[in-house]
Each structure stands twice: as structure tokens, then as C-alpha cells.
Amino acid sequence: QVQLVGSGGGSVQAGGSLRLSCAVSGHTSALETVGWFRQAPGEHRDRADLVARIIWTSGSTIYADSVKGRFTISKENAKDTLFLQMNSLKVEDTGVYHCYADSKIGPRTWGQGTQVTVSL
User: In this predicted model, what pLDDT tens digit does every residue of 23-38 receive, in sequence order?
Assistant: First the structure.
């Protein structure tokens, strides 16, 4: 099993920056893909949109079109920690960000959601 603990987020004005972190523990050797989904206000997590993901072993990344060029997903292997640097934030980036992990063992794992609020 893999456990995730998300942190970071907060409130910022449009154009500002925030960084999310997600500490990964447990069977990290079985990790395949980790990343973040964004749950829009009023929506259930089941309808959350993929923001970015990274393949744990290769570092290959994928971003939603809406965040390309503004967000950067990265990982620090020594600390088994995932980061999402969010720059040039827009109001539409507002939501609850959930880190997730897909591994070779067990179902998808979710971290606790982190609120990101961007205001004009």
C-alpha cells in the first residue's frame, strides 16, 4: 500500500504562485504514476480533472492543456515527495487539489484534498 499526505495551497490573487507538496510513503517501489486532480467548486471528486501527472520511475510528465506553461510537476526522490509549482494562477484554477498515486499493487490511492483559491 501507498500513503499520501498533501500540503500547501491557500489563497492568492490572480497572477500569483503557490506550491503543493505530496509526501509519499509505503511501497514506493511499486509506484507507477503520481499527480494531482482538481475538484472544481461544487463538483464531486469523481468529476475532478487531471492537472498533471508524472511517471515515478522515468520522470515523464503530462499536463492538462489549461495549465501548460504555468504549472510544473516534479519529484524529489530522496524524500519521496511530489511537488506542483503553480505560477500565473487564474481564477479558474480554484478548487480542491487531490494528489493521487497509481501503483502495481492495490487500487488508486488519494491524499487529502488541499484548497487552492485564486481571486481577482
Answer: 999 998 999 999 999 9
